[in-house]
Amino acid sequence: MKGERKMSEFVMECKNITKSYGHVQALKNITFGLRENEVLGIVGDNGAGKSTLIKIIRGAIEPTSGEIFLRGERVIFHSPRDAMNHGIQCVYQDLALVNKLSVIDNFFLGREIEKDVLGFLPVLNEMAMGEGVLLALREMGYEEIDIEEKISNLSGGQRQAVAIARAVFTEPEPDIVLMDEPTSALSEKGKQKVFQFVEFLKQKHSVILVSHDLNAALQVCDRIIILKLGEIVFESNVHDGLSVQQLISLM
Q: What angle is formed at CA 74 by the lines to CA 46 and CA 163, rounded to 5 degrees?
């Protein structure tokens, strides 16, 4: 992010975010902050407003009112590209991968590396792309993935690894990674691998993990926010305050 930054304890702040669709309020005065290298869980049942909030943070929709600040500076996102340019990347619930394409093609989809032949003819730099994918997957502990393999032939955990690597190993490197229902439809073994990914991510990034699975969020998050009917009904550091049963009763 360019320009002089104001001092702030938060990497990102959402202040009084409200989203209305006609007479229906999907979000009502949502206010919270995200700290450096923190994993913040946003938890709630279907219809709680989680997806709407994430869409606003990643620039897919604009709030009816309210403000977003990055390191103390107010920002306005008109598109996901705006959010990405400000250091926000998202790993989507459906992973946004193309099953018929290879790992390497998915990794560089829309941001292919090219080289000039004869000084004027641009072609894909397949060697550089291959090296980039291998380096990213190796750093995440997934050296065994065949980068020439089609996405459709990978396991759920392997697909998740590709989606996370694609979001994180990019230029500019993101400050914030949004993870939308990352454990959805995964086996217990797959969930544990995602938790390892999150621990890997928080070394360099701040993470917002959105989930309807409270138990999963409690395993990996530093702090949780519970949304219900578009409002924050609870916020606390993990393991502080209420029991799991009491937290579930709030959702």
A: 45
Q: Which amino acid is at 14?
A: C
Mean pLDDT highest for which of 16-30, 128-142, 193-207?
16-30
Cα 10 to Cα 6, 50, 70, 168, 226, distances in angstroms: 11, 20, 8, 20, 19
Rounded distance, CA 37 to CA 9, Å? 12
Q: Is the dihedral of CA 101, 104, 105, 108 positive or negative?
A: positive
- Cα-Cα-Cα-Cα torsion 217, 75, 164, 31, nearest 10 degrees, comes to 0
At 16, list the tokens. 């009084």
Tally Cβ neighbours within 10 Å of residue 34. 20
| pLDDT at residue 79 tops 90 | yes
What does the alpha-carbon distance between residue 41 and residue 58 come to, in Å, rounded to a whole number? 16
Helices (H), the chain: 50-57, 80-85, 103-107, 126-139, 156-168, 188-201, 214-220, 244-250
